[in-house]
Amino acid sequence: MTQSFSTEAVRGTLWSYLSFFSGKLLNFISTLILARLLVPEQFGLVAYCTLAIQYLDIINTAGLDSALIARKDKLEQAANAVFITSILLGLASFVISWFSAPFVADFFRQEEVTDLFRVLSLTLPISSIGLVPGALLRRNLDFRKRVTSDVGRTLTKGLTSIILALLGWGPWSLVVGQVAGEVAGGIIAWSFARWKPSLAFDPQVTREVTIFGFHIILVNLAAAFRNNVDYILVGRILGPESLGIYTMAYRVPELVIGSINVVVTSVTFPMLARAQHDFDSLRSVYFGYIRYIALFAYLVAFGLSLVSRQFVETFMSAKWSAMILPMSLIAIAFAIRAVAFVPGVLYKAVGRPDILNRVSLIQLPIVLGLLFYCSRWGIVGVAAGQVALAIINVVIVTVVINRVLNLRFREFLESLWPAFVSSVIMIVIVKAFQVNFELSGIAGLLTYAFIGGATYLGVLGLINREIVKGAFTTLRAAFSRS
Length: 482
Description:
Elements: H1 2-37, H2 40-61, H3 64-69, H4 75-108, H5 113-120, H6 123-129, H7 131-139, H8 143-166, H9 171-193, H10 203-238, H11 240-275, H12 279-306, H13 308-315, H14 324-338, H15 341-349, H16 353-374, H17 378-404, H18 409-436, H19 441-463, H20 465-481
């Protein structure tokens, strides 16, 4: 059973990562094009809107998708309850966003935000209509169909934004593109899910999914505030141009490193929910993800930090040069934080989202105080603060999960050390090469990336050949069964 869980988990991760990465890749390509058509300040204005809309979107979904995925019985009744509730919440969220738009604009001291925010809020009722089909695809681990849905959403969004930017729509091109993408994604999800609402309702089921969702709302609101404090402080204190640059610096590591967090949620939540009564399988999936997430995240994060200057020189114009150092620091923060993401998914899967509430309450004042202090050094200071917070987060989350679920801390460290040692040696080798052979542009990017990747994989094979063989064995099994 353990091997079956491992293979299915990796196979699900492959498809889920393909889904998320393909969407992010298309989004990033369109962002690079838009970065040459627009200026950082225009990106910053839209970032104000997306910041505020996130909190309403959490209330909009109300954790109902998670409740539906975790449901063990009376699935049809639960799906109907979630469908009706999500539509009502979507309409309510849109009304709230319409009337709150002037206050959002006043907070960020940008009058243009009012109209931009109101139009962007159309995504709330649109996304609520597609919530049940999307959740059912995730619940059934049907990641192939999600690839098409995500690609369709992102492609529509990108093409719409680029065309409107060429026509001179400025920040409106980003907002209208987002709405168009949400419409496309919802249509595709409905066509794949093949689910239709019915009159099958159960008051008890409705209460259960609502209560479960309430805990998720609290968790996600706290997490959203904690994760967006940097954007809020940069936007409020440093202005839209700094926010635009910081946003772009964040998007690059988010594409290849941060996306693993979303993938982990998509795959491990249903996997761990299934294994919650089998401790051996639960433990196997948990530590397996920690091990392979570290291998991936450390390689990409530290590698990206080593070639950040060459990356910006190759793909961005000179107006984005201020993002080089912040991007390097944020990449490292993503790598550290990635291994602390699985415990949060595990709490949801075993029906204990209340633990996440308590941990989030502990973290909130730390995040706010540290990032506010670091903002005095601009976006570089905020990015450095993210690294410190990532370390603190790993310590807190690891201690809590080891005490609550009786998992051994030694196993956690054993899962991390191959990736950590390989990363340290990779950094030393690449830095030494950069000192002696300073290359720029795409030549430097490709050369340093090759040296770093070869060093990392070579060291990993020397210090722990079994983990490399295990990874390839599981990958082959996952592909063959796909």
